[in-house]
Amino acid sequence: MPVEQHLFVIFLATTLVAMISPGPDMLFVLGCGIRGGARAGLLATAGVATSEIVHITLAAAGLSAFFAAAPTAFTALRLAGAGYLVYLGVQAIRHRGEQHVQPAAASGVSSRQAYLRGLLTNLVNPKMVTFTIAFLPQFVDPRLCHVWLQFLILGAVFVGLEFLVDGTVGVLAGRIGDWLGRRRAARRRLDMATGGVFIGLGVRLAVERP
C-alpha cells in the first residue's frame, strides 16, 4: 500500500470526526435538502465534494507553504468566506415563511443552485482550506515515493467520506422537506435559525485572527 498504514488509520479517524462535527457545509446541505428535496441535498454535497478536489489539488501542489509565506492571501480568502456565509444567512432569513409554501421538492433551490452554492460554500470556507491544505499533507510520507498517488488515495477517501456524511444528511433532510413545507411556522423558524447560524459563523470568521 503506497500510504503508510499507521498514518492512514489516524487519517480516517480524524477525518471522520471533522466530517461529523456540524459546520457550514453540513448546515448548507441540510438546508438544501429541506428546501429542495433529497436530490438538491445530494447535489449540494456533490458541490462540496468538487471543491474538496480543488483543495486537495492545491495541497498536492504545495500551497500550504505558499500561505505560510504570504499570509495576506489567506486573510483575503478568510474575509471572502466570511462575506459569503453572511450572504447565505441573509438570504435564508429573507426567504423565511413565504406566503405560498410549496412542497420542498419544488421550492426555492434548484439542482443547479444547490450544486453551485455547495461548491462556493466549501470553496471559500477558510476552515476547510486550512484543514485540507495544512492537514492532509501530514499524512503523506515522501519516503514512500509516489507522492501524487498518496494524495490521490487520501483525496479519494476524503471525498468518499464527504459523500457518506453530508449526502446522508441531505437525503434525510429531503425526506422531511414535504412535512416542513406544509408547516409554515416550523419552516420560518428553521430559516431564521439557519440564517442566524450562518451570519454568526461569518462574523466570527471575519473578526477571527488567521
Folded structure, characterized:
The chain is an all-alpha fold. The protein has one domain (5-207). Helices cover 78% and strands 0% of the residues. The chain has helices at residues 5-20, 24-36, 38-60, 63-69, 71-94, 111-123, 126-135, 147-175, 177-181, 184-207. Helix 2 (24-36) packs across helix 8 and helix 2 packs antiparallel against helix 10. 41% of the residues are buried. Residues 97-107 have low confidence and may be disordered.
Considering the chains and any ligands shown, give keywords for the structure.
transmembrane; 210 residues; membrane; globular; 78% helix; transmembrane helix; LeuE-type; mainly alpha
